[in-house]
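Morning F.,

Quick status update on the modeling queue. The single chain you submitted on Monday has been processed. Sequence for confirmation:
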Amino acid sequence: MTEDFITWIYVVDDNEANRRLLELILTAAGYANIRLIPDGVSALKAIEARPPDIVLLDLHMPGLDGFGVLTAISSTIAPDDFLPVLVLTADVDRDARTRALMSGATDFLTKPFDAEEVVLRVRNHLRTRRLHRELRGRNAQLEGEVKSTARALSELAGEWAAVAASLGRLTAEATAEATASAICAELARLPDLDGVVLLAFGAAGTTIPLGVAMPGEVALAVNVALPDGRSQGLRSRVADGPWVGPWVLGANDPGQGPPPRDGFVAAAYVPLAAHGRALGLLAAANDAPDAPARLSRRLPALEAFASLASALLAPGINERQQDDTLRAELNSIIAAGAYNVVFQPIVDLHSGTVVGFEALTRFADGTRPDRRFADADAVGLGIELETATLGAAVAAASALPANAFVSLNVSPNLVLAGGRLATLLAEASVPIVLEITEHTPVADYALLRRALEGLGPSIRFAIDDAGAGYSSFRHILELRPDFVKLDIGLVRSIEDDAARQAFVAGMVYFVLRTGCTLIAEGIETAAERDVLEALAVDLGQGFLFGRPEPIAVSP
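Structure tokens below.
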């Protein structure tokens, strides 16, 4: 469970079996505060006593049914609140669904329940509620700041009334760019401000326009970094506070020569900052002959806007700076090859013969591989890092026995990324098995199948972590792999668990019928190995057979 606030889930259903099933599904997904309620009246009392974060509601109950509960909830929650209600129903009648939606239902869960669908829908709606609460809290805080600033500005005469009105219209938008654009548009309505730009400072020394309000066509593009010279010149002045000087902005592209003046005589520059850290600059230009004097008079108003802009934009700019830092770190790792490849043997459980190896990446700084790859994916470098580490694995695998296959972990994104993977695999000197990771959902299985087939008949593939995660079983059914890897959770202490043994026996039957091979991961004891062998599992890997190690180089 990833929600970072205490989550309360109410399950309202007169059928005890349904209540218990949903409790088991949600508990397995990591949710703890689950309240089971058998009828509508008790549900309303529970909601009044302790409002939940999500309600799973059956429509057809004796007494007060789900429609009545929906109506009562809709009449009691605040207009600016969001309480997701997922209707539980086997009723696919359109009129019933329409009536439920009109009564305030958010979504539907159809009986019989699909565990994966239940967890995903609950998680998504809880995330939406969390974001709604955060946005409401931020807007409330910002509303207080806006009102406070507006009260101070309203005491001034004439021109400050317009400033106060503009500030009062500002709030956090969905993106930093949208917020910056709204601020620029409001400023451009004020006298003497003929052009306005909001600039964000990146962690790598870059300066990027987030919002622009200019007359006519503008060569200054949003989210395109300024040339380094212009960026450093602006950043070097920030510590001295607001100033009025020449208009130095213009086209982002340094190939277009010196920055065009765009008819502006001068500009006022006001730093954006939060908690002592520079965030960016607010730049406002004027084209009148006495522009410096006009803009100097506007500096107090611009500082008021800059203060509010700092509060509104700080989360987005801080996130960008963190991403810049992470991106630079990852680029350095890729450039320096700051990682090693280790191999763990895969053995035939019946003969004990090593038949293959799984290639794994270990980073020089000790960061967990799953964390490092997730970070790379988050900042748009996932495929680059994956390609670099796989290239190292293919090169290192040339020292392995030629009759043993090497299993390489690959994401669906890399498989679908054109010819990168095919080019990399062409260098392999040993048989290759591609182990499809299940950290991200697959949107189009047919497209992924065609991409895998396009790699040629010599490339086999496996599905990892069968029995864990939300997509491993669907991967197996949709992709029909050559190998299926049993998750370590099914292997651990299997000798003492009849349920695990029965599950594995079912998987053995499945692979026999479908023609693939079963690999058990995480085998650590002889007892686990013996039970798996007795269940006719073909292959295994784990500390019992060998830890992941680099290839020993002969002197």
